[in-house]
Write a structure and sequence with these properties.
heterotrimer, A alpha+beta, B alpha+beta, C alpha+beta, A: alpha+beta, Ribosomal Protein S5, domain 2, 3 domains, 24% strand, C: alpha+beta, 31% helix, globular, exosome (chain B), RNase_PH (chain B), nucleus (chain B), rRNA processing (chain B)
Chain lengths: 426, 223, 246
C-alpha cells in the first residue's frame, strides 16, 4: 500500500498561485462546482452519486431489532462509511483512517444528529421491535470533496429507500413481502446537504468543490451542512487556518445557495426515477452503461449454440463425445513463440496453445547443462547471454516434442508456468 | 457454424455491457453488467507492497471484494478466494517480484451470476491496467432447474429456485476450464452438459472482450 | 421539550444562570510532577485533567516525524465513570476519535509548530466527569497544561459551547441543556485576534441566527480567557515568589 499521496511542491504552488489570480486548474470559476450526476440502482435505496471524478455509492438496508432502553419508541440509523481501497491507493481495506473518521462523523452529524429521518416512525412495537436502518456508503473514486458527494448519495438513498410494510396484531408482527404489499418510504423531515470549501491565501479566498489536488494544496477545508430551509445542520472546519467571524458568514451564504440547487436536483432525479419505475422502463446501473460513450460497449442478448444432448448416460460414450466437441470448438493448436526481448520483457505469440508449461519442463532438463555452461563462463558476461538465447531456442525445439499428457497435467496445476520462466535472462 | 442443426435447443446470455477506465484513480478499472448484475472493479498495480506481504519471486496478488451492504463475511471471503485463484493462474506475477497487484471488486447490483460477473469484471480491469496475462478468462453461470433443464445465465430468482448452480471460468487459448464452482446436487451428465453450454457461451464473452479492447484503443488504432 | 423549560419567563436557566453566564470555572496548574505540564479544570460539574509531554524526540516510529514542524499527538479519553451510564471503554469509540482529531487540529493552529521540527508534543486529556461542554473544557485544560509546559503558543486557545433556545443563545451549556437536542455550536478562538480555530456544529439552526450565536460564543470564549489568564498569572507569580525566596 502506498503511504500517502505525494504531490510536488511546484504543483501545489501552481494551484495556490492560480487561485490567487482567481483561476483554477480545471478552468472552473472559484465558486463553481463540478457536474453532479445521481443514478439509481435497480434495488430500492441504492444510489450512485458522481461529482466530477468523485464517485460514491450508497445503499440503505433495514432490519428489525430491539430499541434502546432510553428511547423505546425510536428506531435507529447507523451510517457506515467505507473508504474502499478502490478509491485511492492510500486507503486500506478494513482500517479506519483519520479521513474515514472525519467523513463518518460529518455524515452522522449531517444526517442523524440533524433529525433528518423520523425515527419514531420506525417504531413497530414500543419497547420491543423497531426498524434499524443502515446506510452503507462506499467511496469508489476519490477526487476531492468526499463529504459533499457522500452526503448527497446517502440522503438520496434514504429518500429512494422503501421499507417493507408490517402489520401488528396483538403480539404478532407480520412483515409483508414486496408482492403482498407495496413497501413504504421513510418519513424524512428535510434534505440536508454538505458543501465543501477549500481555503487559500490564509483564509481570504475560498473555492467551492475542491478536487483532491486542490484539497492537498489548500490550507484547510470547511464543510457546511445546510438544507433547503436555510437551516445549518452541521459545520466542520479541518486544517489549521484561523478564520474570522465574517468569513464564516460568507461560507454559509454560499452553502445555502448551493444547497438549494442540490436539493432541487435530488428531487428532480428522484421524480424521474419514480416515473421510470411506474412506466416500467429499464432502471438500474446496467441501463446507464448502455450509452454511446467511446469506452462503453454492450452486446444484446446473444444466442448460444448448445452442444447436442448426450443420448447415452454411459460414461464412456459421453467422454468420447466430449472429446469430439472440444476438438470442434477449440482452434487448431498452434505453436506459440515465447519471445524474450530483454530483462523483464517477454512476448507471447498470437493466440494458440500456450507453451509455457513446456518451458517449465525443458528447463528441468536443461538446468544441468545450462548451469554447467554458466559455471564455465561465469566470468564472461557476453558469453553468458549467448548461452541464454541458445537455451531459449532449445526450449522451443524440445517443446514440440514434449508429451501431451504432461502438458495437460501441468495445465491443471496452479501457477503452471515456470518459476524461472526467464531463467538467466538478466 | 452448427446452428443449422435443428435438434439443438438454444440458450442465450443476457445483455453484456461494460465500460473500461471509468474511474480516474485506479490504474485500470471496468464496470461490467450482465443483465442486471453489475460489478465495478479496479486494479492498482504493480505498486509498493506491504513488507509482510512481500514475495521475493513474484508479485503479491491482493483481492478485496466489497459487498453492497454490511461487512464482508465468510461467503465474501470465499468469493475473494475463488476469484484470486482463477486470476492468479493467468497473471504473469513473476514479472513483478517484490510488488503488489491490488484488485478491488465492488458489488453494485446482484441479479444472479454474481461470481461470474465478478470474474469477468476483474479480468477486464486487469486488461485495462495493461498487466501481462497469459490468457483471458471468461466466466459463465448456469443452473439446473428443478425440472432438470439447463438454464444459462439465470436471474437471481431462477438461481435461488434452481436445483444446482454452476459457475465455470474458461481460459481464452484452448477454452479449458480454470475454475468450476458448484452448489447443490447434480448428476455427472448434468454437469457435463452445463459445462459444454457454458464453454460455447464463453466464446461470446471473449468476442465481447475483443470488442471492448478495440473500442478502448480505437483512437490509437485509427492513427 | 419533555416538560422541561430551559429558559424561564424571567430569563433564568435551569441551574439559575442567566443566558450569557458561564458556569463556575476553577483550575489548577502543575498538578502532576511527572508531566512537563499539567492542569486540572472544573467548569461547573465538568471536570477534566490534562497533561502535556514534550517537545521531545519522536517516540515509536521515527518515520512519523515531520521535517518542517512538530508532530502533535493528542489523546482524548473519558473515564468509564464519567457519565451517568458507565462507559464500556474510555477511548477508541468514534466520538473520542473525532475529539482527538479536533484537539490535534485546534492546537496545530495555536502552537508555534515550526519551532520544533522532527519532534513531538503529546497532549493527553481525560474527562473525569462529564456534564456538558466536554470538548470546550478539554481545550481550556489543554491550553493551561501547554502554558504550564512552557510551549510557545500564538495565543491562549479558549473554547466555549453555546446552545440556542427561544431565540436566545446560552453560553457554556450543561448536560441537560445539551441532551434536549437544541442546536449547539462549539468554537475555539484565539481571543486576542478573535480568530476561530475550531468550529463545530450539530443539530439544526437557521442561517439568520448564526451570527447571533457565533457572537455569543466568541464572547463566552473571551470570558473564559479572562479567567484562564488570571489563573496563569497567579500561578506564575506563585512560582516566581517560591523561586525568589530560596
Amino acid at each position: 500500500m502506498v503511504k500517502e499521496v505525494i504531490t510536488a511542491k511546484c504543483e501545489q504552488d501552481f494551484i495556490i498561485e492560480s487561485v490567487k489570480a482567481d483561476k483554477r486548474i480545471d478552468g472552473r470559476e472559484l465558486n463553481e462546482s463540478r457536474v453532479m450526476h445521481i443514478t439509481f440502482g435497480k434495488t430500492r435505496g441504492c444510489v450512485l452519486c458522481t461529482l466530477g471524478n468523485t464517485r460514491v455509492l450508497s445503499q440503505v438496508s433495514c432490519e428489525m431489532s430491539m430499541p434502546k432502553a432510553a428511547h423505546p419508541t425510536e428506531g435507529s440509523i447507523h451510517i457506515n462509511v467505507e473508504l474502499s481501497p478502490m478509491a485511492s491507493p492510500v486507503f486500506e481495506a478494513g482500517r479506519s483512517s483519520d479521513l474515514g473518521i472525519e467523513l463518518t462523523r460529518v455524515l452522522e452529524k449531517c444526517i442523524r444528529d440533524s433529525h433528518c429521518v423520523d425515527l419514531e416512525a420506525l417504531c413497530i412495537v414500543a419497547g420491543e421491535k423497531v426498524w434499524s436502518l443502515r446506510v452503507d456508503v462506499h467511496v469508489m473514486n476519490h477526487d476531492g470533496n468526499l463529504a459533499e458527494c457522500a452526503a448527497i448519495s446517502a440522503v438520496s438513498s434514504l429518500h429512494h429507500f422503501r421499507r417493507p410494510e408490517v402489520t401488528v396484531a396483538g403480539a404478532d408482527v407480520t412483515v409483508h413481502s414486496v408482492e403482498e404489499h407495496d413497501p413504504i418510504p421513510l418519513s424524512l423531515h428535510h434534505i440536508p446537504v454538505c458543501v465543501t470549501f477549500a481555503l487559500f491565501n490564509s483564509g481570504q479566498q475560498v473555492i467551492a468543490d475542491p478536487t483532491e489536488a486542490e484539497e492537498l494544496a489548500s490550507e484547510g477545508r470547511v464543510v457546511v451542512g445546510v438544507n433547503a430551509h436555510q437551516e445549518i445542520c452541521m459545520m466542520h472546519i479541518s486544517g489549521c487556518t484561523p478564520l474570522q467571524k465574517e468569513q464564516v458568514q460568507r461560507f454559509v451564504e454560499l452553502a445555502v445557495n448551493r444547497a438549494k440547487y442540490v436539493t432541487e436536483s435530488i428531487k428532480t432525479n428522484l421524480q424521474h426515477d419514480e416515473q421510470n419505475r411506474s412506466s416500467k422502463n429499464l432502471v438500474g446501473f446496467a441501463k446507464d452503461l448502455q450509452t454511446d460513450k467511446i469506452l462503453a460497449v454492450q452486446i444484446r442478448p446473444q444466442r448460444v449454440f448448445v452442444p447436442p444432448p448426450q443420448v447415452s448416460t454411459e460414461e464412456t460414450v459421453s467422454t468420447d463425445k466430449e472429446v469430439e466437441m472440444t476438438d470442434e470448438i477449440s482452434p487448431p493448436e498452434k505453436e506459440v513463440k515465447v519471445l524474450l526481448y530483454g530483462p523483464k520483457t517477454a512476448g507471447i505469440g498470437e493466440g494458440g496453445a500456450s507453451q509455457w508449461e513446456t518451458v517449465d519442463l525443458s528447463i528441468e532438463d536443461n538446468i544441468t547443462t545450462s548451469v554447467e555452461k554458466n559455471i564455465d563462463l561465469s566470468y564472461d558476461d557476453e558469453s553468458e547471454e549467448e548461452v541464454v538465447t541458445l537455451g531459449a531456442e532449445d526450449l522451443q525445439i524440445e517443446s514440440r516434442e514434449s508429451d501431451k499428457n504432461d502438458k495437460a497435467k501441468q495445465r491443471l496445476s496452479r501457477g503452471w508456468y515456470a518459476k524461472d520462466a526467464f531463467f538467466g535472462g538478466w | 457454424m452448427l446452428s443449422d442443426n435443428k435438434e439443438n435447443e438454444t440458450q442465450s446470455i443476457r445483455t453484456l455491457s461494460a465500460e473500461l477506465s471509468n474511474l480516474s484513480r485506479p490504474d485500470g478499472s471496468a464496470i461490467v453488467a450482465q443483465g442486471d448484475t453489475v460489478v465495478q472493479s479496479a486494479v492498482y498495480g504493480p505498486v509498493e507492497v506491504r513488507p509482510n506481504k512481500e514475495l521475493p519471486d513474484k508479485a503479491y496478488f491482493d483481492i478485496v471484494y466489497k459487498p453492497l451492504t454490511g461487512l464482508p463475511g465468510c461467503p465474501e471471503k470465499l468469493r475473494e478466494r475463488v476469484i484470486r485463484n482463477t486470476l492468479e493462474a493467468t497473471l504473469l506475477v513473476n514479472l513483478h517480484p517484490r510488488k503488489s497487484i491490488n484488485l478491488i471488486l465492488q458489488e453494485m447490483q446482484n441479479d444472479g451470476g454474481l461470481l461470474a460477473c465478478c470474474i469477468n469484471s476483474a479480468c477486464m480491469a486487469l486488461m485495462d491496467a495493461g498487466l501481462a496475462m497469459k490468457c483471458l478468462v471468461a466466466a459463465l453461470n448456469a443452473v439446473i432447474t428443478t425440472e432438470g433443464d439447463v438454464l444459462l445465465d439465470p436471474s437471481l430468482k431462477q438461481e435461488e429456485e434452481a436445483k444446482a448452480c454452476f459457475t465455470f471460468a474458461f481460459e481464452s487459448i484452448n477454452h479449458e476450464v480454470i475454475t468450476s464452482n458448484t452448489q447443490g446436487s447434480y448428476s455427472e451428465t448434468e454437469f457435463k452438459k452445463c459445462l459444454e453450454i457454458c464453454r460455447s457461451a464463453s466464446m461470446k464473452v471473449f468476442d465481447f472482450y475483443r470488442e471492448c479492447v478495440q473500442r478502448r484503443f480505437s483512437k490509437e488504432i485509427d492513427r | 421539550m419533555a416538560g422541561l423549560e430551559l429558559l424561564s419567563d424571567q430569563g433564568f436557566r435551569l441551574d439559575g444562570r442567566r443566558p450569557h453566564e458561564l458556569r463556575k470555572i476553577e483550575c489548577r496548574m502543575g498538578v502532576f510532577a511527572q508531566a512537563d505540564g499539567s492542569a486540572y479544570i472544573e467548569q461547573g460539574n465538568t471536570k477534566v485533567l490534562a497533561a502535556v509531554y514534550g517537545p521531545h524526540e519522536m517516540r515509536g516510529s521515527k518515520s512519523r516525524g515531520l521535517h518542517h514542524k512538530v508532530l502533535i499527538n493528542c489523546q482524548y479519553s473519558m473515564a468509564t465513570f464519567s457519565t451517568g451510564e458507565r462507559k464500556r471503554r474510555p477511548r477508541g469509540d468514534r466520538k473520542s476519535q473525532e475529539m482527538t482529531l479536533h484537539l490535534k487540529q485546534t492546537f496545530e493552529a495555536a502552537i508555534m509548530t515550526q519551532l520544533y521540527p522532527r519532534s513531538q508534543i503529546d497532549i493527553f486529556v481525560e474527562v473525569l466527569q462529564a456534564d456538558g461542554g466536554n470538548y470546550s473544557t478539554c481545550v481550556n485544560a489543554a491550553t493551561l497544561a501547554l502554558v504550564d509546559a512552557g510551549i510557545p503558543l500564538k495565543d491562549y486557545v479558549c473554547a466555549c459551547t453555546t446552545g440556542f433556545v427561544n431565540d436566545t443563545p446560552m453560553v457554556d451549556i450543561s448536560f441537560v441543556e445539551e441532551s434536549l437536542g437544541g442546536p449547539q455550536l462549539t468554537v475555539a478562538v484565539l481571543p486576542k485576534s478573535e480568530q476561530i480555530v475550531l468550529l463545530e456544529m450539530a443539530s439544526r439552526l437557521h442561517v439568520d441566527y448564526l451570527n447571533k450565536v457565533l457572537k455569543t460564543a466568541v464572547k463566552g470564549c473571551k470570558d473564559v480567557y479572562v479567567i484562564l489568564d488570571e489563573v496563569v498569572r497567579n500561578h506564575v507569580a506563585q512560582i516566581a515568589s517560591s523561586v525568589g525566596s530560596e
